[in-house]
Amino acid sequence: MAGQASGRIDDTMLVREAQHGNRAAFEELVRSYDQAVLRLALHLTGSEHEAQDVYQEAFLKAYKSIGNFRFECSFYTWIYRIVTNLCLDHLRKRQVRKEDAPVATDAAGEQYDVLDQVPDGRSGANPERDLMRRELGKRISHALEKLTPRERMVFELKHYHGLKLRTVGEVLHTTEETAKNTLFRATQKLRGALADMR
Questions:
Q1: What's the CA gap between 130 and 122, in Å, rounded?
Q2: Could you give the angle at the alpha carbon of 151 between the alpha carbons of 170 and 46, nearest 5°?
Q3: 146-198: what CATH class?
Q4: Fewest beta carbons less than 10 Å away: which of 67, 171, 178, 196?
């Protein structure tokens, strides 16, 4: 924990330097958070291409707005807030376009996801287990897609990124209580969507 606390102090120093036009200081902040930002964007969008876009947009936005950073929260919370807002925008646009994955129709007239047909070259020594793992991953992804963008954000930030609900609330500009209620709703929906798997 001490490492994290001293990390925050270093961030404060780097942010102050970056606010005075020190590009090296900003680049140091990017280096500290680039993996976390990319991982978050990938989890939230589910698309490597979109995650790369969000990653670039987030740091560009942070660079342009660093002068407005008021130290009311940590840089970590601030950059996560930028990323989640950009991901929300991407998810909303995607819902409007509804052009998620390339879909084709088979001989029986059933639609299928073209990407599911691409063979996975990493198949290990136990193809049955790999198949089950892929199937479970697919079911969880489909279940996550049934959540509203905000429910999905809260669930992902809490469970995949290990953030405390108070921090999730800060990232999403809401209260800890609202984040808790949103997480509860998301968990109930996921349980319902995955109930038939037992």
A1: 9
A2: 100
A3: mainly alpha
A4: 196
Give the start-to-end residue ranges of the domains of the chain.
1-100, 146-198
DSSP letters of 66-135? Answer: GGG--SSS-HHHHHHHHHHHHHHHHHHHHHHH---S-EEE-TTS-EEEGGGGS--TT--S-HHHHHHHHH
Which CATH number is 1-100 given?
1.10.1740.10
Quick: pLDDT tens for 6-27.
456 588 999 999 999 999 999 9
> What does residue 68 show for φ and ψ, rounded to 5 degrees?
-90, 0
97-138 pLDDT, tens digit each = 554 444 444 555 555 444 444 444 444 456 666 676 677 667
| Encoded tokens for 28 | 């140091």
CA distance from start to end of the chain: 38
By three-state DSSP, how is residue 22 classified?
A: coil
Q: Are 121 and 153 in contact (CB under 8 A)?
A: no
Please give the Cα distance from 185 to 151 (Å, whole number). 7
For residue 121, what are its two tokens? 């070259």
Torsion 18-6-83-52 (CA) sign: positive
